[in-house]
Specification:
- With 473 residues, this protein is mainly α.
- The chain has a single domain (12-207, 221-455), classed as Hydantoin permease, CATH 1.10.4160.
- The protein has 19 helices and no strands.
- Helix 5 (86-121) crosses helix 16 (389-416).
- The longest helix has 37 residues, at 308-344.
- It is globular.
């Protein structure tokens, strides 16, 4: 039963937009298109679709169903499924705390670029077009006070929406923000695909290259596609279970679980159609990561003349919406679990107090990432021998806890409690995919998730060893 003291979604549309919002994030904008182009183009896309159908859909359905059946966030949901698996819920609850520490910093950078392009529209001195895009990015991230200021702005905005609650905060924003994101994506795609040499960018993304599967190359492609699918859908981040706990009982779980990965993938493909034609039009390197988003694309906008700042502002606004919807989902995943704990101890949920606590915690972690200049500060101490504080939080969240959480979920629902979610899904859906979901959770997802766990941990700790280089080519 939904706990009204925590709130609930007013409509299924609101839930769907929120679930899509937490799935569509920064990784969709730069990660998916680049990995697709660098790993076989259309061949990579086929593998990704296979993973999304056989792994993504069953796990995503399972997490939402666990949340709605129990009316609880990750910790209590896993505990009700099997008390021995409560630790998996703890893992999922820790993930948002770690991811938000660098996500808010990147979100702050996006706000800076929105403002800079807006300034360029009116020829103001703080515009991004007043200096080389690489210098602009380097100057900004090397100024601790400046990057920390924008980080705090992004964090405070996230905290405010979550503080407003499910119906009046998260649902209202996502119900408007997600349709707006797709509209802005389409506008950007139309413009960028009409640039000179845009066809080269489309060829980079979509040209099939099955030779990449030769030897052990298939392992690398499967690992890249699987990792992107897993993290893109925000599985094992605590957000989906929390959102499921706020979902109405008559909402079709099966249909929603199909629509989220479908629309998430569509958004990622649209992002690629916007990003890579633009990058190749200026003969720039299609490297992934912040360099692609904040340096290469800003170079493109600077080269467009008077219309450049307009399209730059539109593009970075859509990136902001994607980042912001993901950040509020992640924060809610952690907050919901803490409120459950308070209610279990016969205390009020007290959303304002819990939001304040996670905001302070996130501010401390974000400050480390910001003061480290996204890894560019050689004088900043970094633990565990990692290159940056961003790597520290990324390793803990995406590198270890998320894949482990997905593996444990598959084991729990595929072997230990095979019947746990089926009655909940069937209560509001035709559930024509029941046998398919059961088979995937039992036989396919555990094997796949074990591989993802292996690849993620190996990437961080053993990437320089000979056996790992030989395995991934």
């Amino acid at each position: 039963m939904i706990n009204e003291s925590k709130g609930s979604f007013k409509s299924n549309f609101g839930f769907l937009m929120a679930a899509i919002g937490v799935a569509i994030g920064l990784g969709n904008i730069w990660g998916f298109p680049y990995k697709m182009g660098a790993n076989g183009g259309f061949a990579f896309l086929l593998i990704y679709f296979f993973m999304a159908v056989f792994i993504g859909y069953p796990l995503l359905l399972a997490e939402i169903a666990m949340g709605r059946k129990t009316g609880k966030a990750a910790v209590e949901a896993f505990s009700q499924a099997n008390p021995k698996f409560k630790f998996a819920g703890v893992f999922e609850t820790l993930v948002p705390f770690l991811l938000l520490c660098f996500y808010c910093v990147l979100g702050g950078v996006v706000i800076k670029y929105m403002i800079a392009n807006f300034g360029d529209i009116f020829g103001l001195s703080f515009g991004a077009g007043n200096m080389n895009s690489s210098d602009f990015f380097g100057f900004f991230v090397s100024e601790p006070k400046m990057i920390l200021l924008y980080t705090v702005i992004f964090l405070m905005m996230t905290s405010y929406v979550v503080f407003r609650g499910i119906e009046n905060g998260i649902e209202k924003f996502c119900a408007v923000g997600m349709p707006l994101l797709f509209v802005m994506l389409l506008i950007t795609v139309v413009k960028c695909c009409t640039l000179p040499h845009a066809a080269e960018g489309l060829k980079f993304m979509f040209k099939p290259d099955f030779s990449i599967f030769a030897g052990t190359g298939w392992f690398k492609v499967f690992a890249m596609a699987g990792g992107q699918m897993f993290f893109s859908l925000s599985i094992a981040s605590g957000a989906l279970i929390a959102y499921g706990s706020y979902m109405k009982k008559d909402a079709d779980l099966e249909r929603n679980a199909m629509l989220v990965p479908l629309l998430d993938t569509f958004a990622a493909l649209l992002a690629g159609l916007a990003v890579f034609p633009a990058v190749f039009s200026e003969s720039l390197e299609p490297s992934g990561g912040p360099g692609l988003l904040f340096v290469s694309l800003q170079t493109v906008f600077n080269s467009m003349g008077k219309v450049g700042p307009i399209f730059g502002f539109i593009f970075y606004t859509l990136v902001f919406v994607a980042a912001f919807s993901s950040s509020i989902g992640m924060m809610e995943g952690g907050i919901s679990a803490i409120m459950d704990s308070r209610i279990k101890r016969n205390k009020s949920a007290n959303r304002p107090l819990v939001v304040l606590g996670i905001t302070i915690t996130t501010l401390i972690g974000s400050s480390l990432v910001a003061l480290d200049n996204l890894g560019g500060n050689p004088n900043m101490w970094k633990p565990f021998g990692l290159g940056s504080w961003l790597d520290v939080f990324d390793l803990g969240g995406e590198g270890i806890l998320m894949p482990l959480g997905g593996l444990i979920t598959a084991i729990l629902l595929g072997w230990v409690r095979r019947d746990f979610i089926h009655d909940e899904v069937a209560s509001s859906s035709p559930y024509k995919t029941r046998k398919f979901v059961d088979f995937c959770l039992r036989w396919i997802a555990p094997v796949f998730m074990a591989v993802v766990v292996f690849v993620q941990i190996s990437t961080f700790f053993f990437s320089n060893t000979q056996w790992y280089k030989a395995l991934l080519g």
